[in-house]
Specification:
The chain is mainly alpha-helical. The protein is 93% helix and 0% strand. It has one domain (1-27). This is EHS-2 protein.
């Protein structure tokens, strides 16, 4: 179960990182 939670957290981090990169690219 812990592994699954870690995976979810990683996905959220990736999404945030992608959003930041997109913002910088558009900005």
């Amino acid at each position: 179960m812990g592994g699954e939670r870690d995976r979810d957290r990683e996905g959220e981090r990736s999404s945030k990182r992608v959003a930041i990169i997109l913002c910088n690219h558009l900005g």
